[in-house]
What we know:
Layout: H1 17-30, E1 35-38, E2 44-49, H2 55-65, E3 70-74, H3 75-80, E4 89-93, H4 100-107, E5 123-127, H5 132-142, E6 148-152, E7 166-168, H6 169-181, E8 184-190, E9 199-205, E10 213-218, E11 227-233, H7 236-240, H8 248-262, E12 265-270, H9 273-276, H10 279-290, H11 295-302, H12 312-321, E13 325-329, H13 333-341, E14 345-350, H14 361-369
Parallel strand pairs: 1-7, 11-12, 11-13, 13-14
Antiparallel strand pairs: 1-2, 2-6, 3-4, 3-6, 4-5, 8-9, 9-10, 10-12
Helix pairs in contact: 1-6, 5-6, 6-12, 10-11
Bound molecules: guanosine-5'-triphosphate and zinc ion (ZN).
Amino acid sequence: MTKPLDVSPGPNQPPPPPLIAVDRAVAELRRGAVVAVRGADSRVAYALAAEAATADSLAHLTTLAGTRPCLILSNRRAAVLGHDVAAPAARVDLPAGIDPLTVAWLADPVARDVPQPDLTKLTMQPVAAGSVPAASVALAKLARLLPATLVAVPTAGALLLSGVVVVDVAAIEEYQQTAARSLRKVSEARVPLVDAENARIVAFRPADGGIEHLAIIIGEPDTAQPVLARLHSECFTGDLLGSLRCDCGDQLRGAIAEIAQAGSGILLYLSQEGRGIGLVNKLRAYQLQDDGLDTLDANLQLGFDDDERIYLPAAQMLRLLGVERVRLLTNNPLKVEALAAHGVVVAERVPHVFPANDHNQGYLRTKATKGGHLF
Length: 375
Ligand SMILES: Nc1nc2c(ncn2[C@@H]2O[C@H](COP(=O)(O)OP(=O)(O)OP(=O)(O)O)[C@@H](O)[C@H]2O)c(=O)[nH]1
Ligand SMILES: [Zn+2]
């Protein structure tokens, strides 16, 4: 007996308050404003994205807190600067304090016109997981900014100003999972595609109104059988512009054509641009690659992990569509493992390889030799 997909819209859910707090804090960081991050012990520190540091914003942060701000870097960025810390983040200590040029030099490997500051007295201290400074770096990542912040702990007498957005460490840590679990189907339409005329797009939105993920459904998948599926991470440059730096455009159109040829299946189009670091940071990573770094090291140089994606949203979308088993079009074993860990049975991995071109040979080689991709 065949079992069709469930594409009906889900019920509206009120957004969980922690999601809202994180969204507000993200917007504040992105516009260069100060936010207050509150730890499990209710103590608060003020934070500013390093990317937004100016003489004025640093002075404002210092006045608010009544203490000098410290620069917090991810452990990846600290390692690049020669300081290995056994913690998720590191606090930079400079006896003379910190100024915007030093912040730029330390936090942003692409800021090349910045003169190297005197770093002879620079030390770094590990910043524990679950702490306010570590969470501030995670918040900068959620904001798709460089993973570096300026943090100032208010003096005992300093009052928490009204108007400053307050966000809890736990809300930051749980944000991605909570947002993924809150996804619901919001709309659906028939969209005939050049390679798959019988196609529909279903949009999934998290309860906080965050960015939607899409399912492109081709034909009439039968969920009683493993469904031919592809998890495709958004790539503006490759998917839309036909960039030759990667294989994404070929993989996207190739998957649609292959699914159409097979009769039916699903392509999940996941809003995880740049392996989860965002388009702006991916462009920074491209600059570093033009200087000789490979695609994975460029991420590390910027302070990110080599791959920041999570696949709970994909598993959740499949679940909402009624799909429990898939035949997965991918060369990436991590996608297979991640789906399985989230309870989706990967009955088969279907290779998804396309010919290299003059511009993406190195990229594909790195994915195979260092990224564990199966070519
Ligand atoms: N950070 C970064 N992201 C990149 C780069 N090149 C491509 N990407 C991103 O990498 C992702 C590629 O996604 P996928 O093709 O779904 O994933 P994959 O890990 O290659 O796995 P399969 O294609 O399934 O084998 C997209 O989000 C691209 O935007 C790069 O040089 N740096
Ligand atoms: Zn791409």
